[in-house]
TrEMBL record:
One of its GO terms (molecular function) is methyltransferase activity. PANTHER family: TRNA1(VAL) (ADENINE(37)-N6)-METHYLTRANSFERASE. It comes from Paenibacillus mangrovi. It holds the Pfam family MTS. It comes from the Bacteria. This is tRNA1(Val) (Adenine(37)-N6)-methyltransferase.
Length: 253
């Protein structure tokens, strides 16, 4: 693909997503995507067609990656204007305007525009950390991405319940320390946890990420999938991580 540098604002760059000739606009001045977003895009249960929503979409990495797995219409919503603008320009850069729509706005208010129960699947990589004062050390973009400033965990899960269809899937990546809260809130809002997978930096270390998928109004039954190990004993990516990053695995993680 010929890169259209006219889409870049000052301080921005174009990064390679390493799969399907996809690229993304990023900047060191704002919060960039990391491995958790890539893993979620591969883990999420999504339909071959229909309508998918990515909450807290940031610069749009998850919608872009989901295009490699489905023909569904994909939307992303982001509250920060700069990140939403970067996401829109990344959609244009990849000529995905017919498949991806990026909304700028508050996810807590989206149901007022779309109505209830309209999406077949929802993905979300939400802010991980409750407010505790450490957010003041970050710039505003990083603070909103990492801390529950614009939305709490409960508000994210309530939004998922409002927007996903009965029988639709909600997939989230988060920190294992919050798993008790996540599962309790999901059940409170009729999202039944169905699949769990822990991500470990190395085989001998405790998990530092958890992937969880729930079904709205599903029956109680949760599967604990094999752990996903990131690095091997030689400090190299394990084969499954390489497959995920380079796109040779098109199905779920």
């Amino acid at each position: 693909m010929d890169m259209d540098n006219s889409l870049l604002e000052p301080s921005e760059r174009i990064d390679d997503l390493l799969t399907h000739d996809l690229h993304i606009i990023q900047s060191d001045e704002v919060f960039s995507f990391s491995m958790d977003a890539v893993l979620l895009a591969r883990f999420a249960g999504i339909p071959p067609r229909g309508r998918i929503l990515d909450l807290c979409t940031g610069n749009g990495v998850i919608p872009l990656l989901l295009t490699t797995r489905t023909k569904a219409d994909i939307e992303g919503i982001e509250i920060q204007p700069r990140l939403a603008g970067m996401a829109r320009r990344s959609v244009t850069l990849n000529q995905m305007q017919e498949r991806i729509i990026i909304r700028e706005g508050d996810l807590r208010e989206l149901y007022k525009e779309t109505g209830h129960g309209v999406y077949d699947a929802i993905t979300v990589n939400p802010p991980y950390m409750p407010l505790n004062g450490s957010d003041i050390k970050l710039n505003r973009h990083q603070a909103i991405a990492r801390h529950e400033i614009s939305c709490t965990l409960e508000e994210v899960i309530q939004t998922c319940f409002r927007l996903v269809k009965p029988g639709g899937k909600v997939s989230m990546v988060h920190k294992p320390q919050r798993l008790g809260d996540i599962m309790a809130l999901m059940r409170q809002y009729r999202l039944e946890p169905k699949r769990l997978r822990f991500v470990h930096p190395r085989a001998h270390l405790e998990a530092n990420m958890v992937l969880i998928e729930a079904i709205r109004d599903g029956k109680p039954e949760v599967r604990l999938l094999p752990p996903l190990i990131v690095y091997d004993e030689n400090n190299q990516y394990c084969p499954e991580i390489m497959d995920i990053y380079y796109g040779s695995k098109e199905g779920e993680v």
